[in-house]
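dumping this here before i forget
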Amino acid sequence: MRDYRDLRVWDEAHRFPLAIYKVTVSFPKDERFGLTSQIRRASASIGANLAEGCGRRSDREMGRFVQIAMGSGGELSYHLLLSRDLEILTKEQYAGLNADLDRVMKMLSALSGKLRNALSA
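structure:
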């Protein structure tokens, strides 16, 4: 079992929903159970899946949870774009959050590759 807090990608993935929660406070009240909820859930899901994967017994299982985290990142990417296009997020807010998400996604992809290489060795 790994300690997820030792992963640099988890640290970045944990910071991300903190920023998301701050930004979504200003979302319209009628989006409370819509985009606000979906964006918050997807952003928190990335770090949560890393934590769950670290609690598993094998690199194969860890890799599966990294893939699930990447799926949450893809979902979040769309929700951020939608929020920008609906003018709920400013272009500047979108650009900053999207850049942060891209960084996390690249780190997840690198971790996934390392786990794949470990399995094929």
